[in-house]
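REQUEST FORM: STRUCTURE PREDICTION
Request ID: SP-0412
Submitted by: Lab K.M.
Chain count: 1
Length (residues): 257
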Amino acid sequence: MRVPYSILNLYVDVSDIDPQGLVEKLNTHSVEAGLDYFGNNDVDKVVVGKVIKTSPHPSLKKLLVCEVSVGDQTLTVCTNDKTVKEGDKVFVVLAGGKVGDLEITERNFKGVKSQGMFLGLEELIGIPSDGVFKFHDPQVEEGSDVKKLLGLGEPIIELDITPNRGDLLSVKGLAREISALYRKELKVQEVTPFEVFGNEPPIEVLDREACKRYRGAVVRNVKVKESPLWLQVSLWKFGQNSVNNIVDITNYILLPW
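STATUS: Completed
RESULT:
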């Protein structure tokens, strides 16, 4: 099981606990644990761009020429991913930036100067992807620092849970363990009440000894679409893939429990 430090910190304060020290303490007192880090932290000048115009390259048929807004300027970037379209948001390495050992410079493709390079998820977080990663979250501004946006380099606690420690099979379970080991108070989670409307959904419990409580709710006016980026990133850190907003939020709310 993978538990990101930022999510763990929502339930118990680990801001002053060294991740390596925490892993060693868990190994000594609780369960086999390891330490990983999220994504490729060795990046520079990688920002969010928004594609504002695309056109075929005048002579290289395999290339698409894109005009991309990165907040304070508009760049020209050539890509061989022809699925990129106007309105897509992408991760762009600016000229002079790098991803690992790959340094990006301006390149001339037969008269068209490319001022950066689009990225897929594989280069940033190791998730295999076909072509350029594209998203459409209106809350993410062009020019945003991708390293900060994705939390690249964040510590991830990896647990190998034994059958006798099923209580650790959740974020809250690990938070309780850390609370006991470090004598820290668990954080109180604020719950926002929701307005009850309409009739109660029909629920019939056939065996009240086997199931003493069952709750249900109806969610209306929901459109299946791409998840906001923060939700996709959270799932990636847990080692899960993003599917759509409905599947993703269902998976996300189950992770703490």
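NOTES: The radius of gyration is 23 Å.
Reviewed by: T.R.
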